[in-house]
Amino acid sequence: MTLSGPFTEPTSRSSASQPSRTPIQDVSLDALRIVATLMVLLIHISGKGFAGIHLPHWWAINTWESVSRVCVPLFFMITGALLLPREHSVKSILKRAWRILYVLVAWSIIFFTYLHFRHGSAPVDTWLDSIAKGPVIGHLWYLYALIPAYFVIPVLSSFHRNTALPMQVLVLAVWVLGASMIPFLDRFTGIVRLGLDFHFFYIYPAYILAGAIFYRHVRMTPARAALAFLIWIAATGCTAFFTWFYSKDLPVNTELFYEYFAPLVVIATFSLFYSLRWFASFLADRCPGSGRALTFFGSLSFGVYLIHPAIIWEFEGQGYAWNFTNPWIAVPALLLGVSIVSGAITWVVRRTVGLRWLIPG
């Protein structure tokens, strides 16, 4: 069966169930990793200024925050693009979960140690109990979410590899309805408008499935990439506008439009995933050096993600916070500095025998 429009599908059910043809190294996914990581840093640098809506800096903060809201959804889409087309075994899933678990524990202890010597923290004998109960530093929540996700991957993978594309699109559409649109409207209006119980659905697996569908089945063309990029800009602009509009008269600013399940964030994520992949592939095809650069910096992204909070704190300790000058300039300047320092540390750690296990490739 062949679908018209932007979709392509294997010619038979059997071909759909074949092992992945996903390349081991894809510069377009490296580009997405880099951008998503930088967006995480942007949120963590600018977020402290979000509360002051009536101060002159606020629109800069709202803009940086709105631009970056696709960061974590992009990570989940990358996971889906890489893992859903593959066959999985108990051994492979346990191996992936173990690799994230030991990184989570190791970096939790590293941050506990850092905080202990810098500011004083919980007694050492309580650290492991604290780690078991939840993230000791906010950004580590993603690792707590990723470990359970790996155990859902085989289910999604089997569905993706053995189910016709129209059924996948239908399930994804219903999933987005149940995990994004309905809960958003419920939160926005305070009224339950549909009695169907959508609690079965959650937005992160939807992003994983969407990543595989977009990666494997959606054809990339220059015109569609340009349109997708414009949609991302529009969705981001609407996120910023509605955040301002529905916050300006409230005692506490609303972050509802920033939520990862918010429909505008879903739209922006899908659009940027498509457009950025096309642009990165186009660039790498015409300039091999850029492809090598994307591969190199993409390999540092996980380490930058793990390290960056401590680097932000160190910059802030030296007086370089989000507002050390005009936030339109201060935030990207700090982003550059934190990225360089975090990337350099990652590069050293990954090349040091005895330490490289802290940041697996």
Summed up, what is this model?
This protein is mostly helical and about 350 residues long.
Commentary on this structure:
By secondary structure, the chain is mainly α. It has one domain. Helices cover 69% and strands 0% of the residues. The model is unreliable at 9-20 (pLDDT under 50). Belongs to the acyltransferase 3 family. Residues 1-22 are annotated as: Disordered. Residues 27-346 form the Acyltransferase domain. Keywords: Acyltransferase, Cell membrane, Membrane, Transferase, Transmembrane, Transmembrane helix.
Largest beta-sheet details: none
Q: Compute the average pLDDT.
A: 90
Task: Report the radius of gyration as a whole number of Å.
Answer: 21 Å
Elements, N to C (H/E)? HHHHHHHHHHHHH
State the domain count: 1
Low-confidence stretches: 9-20
- The class by helix and strand makeup works out as mainly alpha
Core attributes:
mainly alpha; 361 residues; transmembrane helix; 13 helices; transmembrane; transferase; acyltransferase activity
